[in-house]
Amino acid sequence: MTIFPRCVRFVLNTRNFCGSSSVPLLEIGSKSKITKSFSSNDVQLFANLTHDRNPIHLDEDFVKTTRFKKKVVHGILCVGLLSGVLGTVFPGPGSIMLSCEMRYPAPLYINEEVTAEVIVRNIQGRKVTFDTKCIVESTGKIVCEGMAQLLVPRNRLSATNGHR
């Protein structure tokens, strides 16, 4: 069984590439993003995996009595998208998340298409800090924002950062 069967779009936007291998190099301002929507089935599977069965995510009748009026995607699924960018695409394999801090200024609803974006804010040796956000592009609504610090492989750092 596939947990998240829907297609996820990846976009990489960097200013520098490493020779013919096309490995993106990290520089201040480099960024990458992915876009996805979470179905009711995705949310139910996550609830089952984590035992987070808060009715705000699962119960249509319950949410109608709240200020949200519609089922809300678990916020940590947005963080999962950000982790997907960082660990798979940019900086990619071999990266290790050291810390992250997130805020959830607005809810993400089931089937809303959300874009998770990471931007390099600071580089200190192999520790790289990223600004992170998840935004519903159709409305401009930010549903998750914060920062993440990673330990990245040396081959992802540019020569201008003194690591080539």
Q: What layout of secondary structure does this protein have?
A:
Layout: E1 9-13, E2 17-18, E3 23-24, E4 31-37, H1 40-50, H2 55-58, H3 60-63, H4 75-89, E5 96-103, E6 113-124, E7 127-136, E8 141-151
Antiparallel strand pairs: 1-4, 2-3, 4-6, 5-8, 6-7, 7-8
CATH names the topology as Thiol Ester Dehydrase, Chain A
CATH class label? Alpha Beta
Task: Give the mean pLDDT.
Answer: 85
User: Roughly how many Å apart are the termini?
Assistant: 42 Å
* Helix vs. strand class: alpha+beta
Portion of residues in helices? Answer: 10-25%
Task: Specify the CATH homologous superfamily.
Answer: Hotdog Thioesterase
Round the Cα radius of gyration to an integer and report it.
17 Å
Kindly estimate the percentage of residues that lie in beta strands according to DSSP. 25-35%
Number of strands: 8
Domain MaoC-like: 35-127
Protein name: MaoC-like domain-containing protein
GO biological process, one term: fatty acid biosynthetic process
Pfam family, one: MaoC_dehydratas
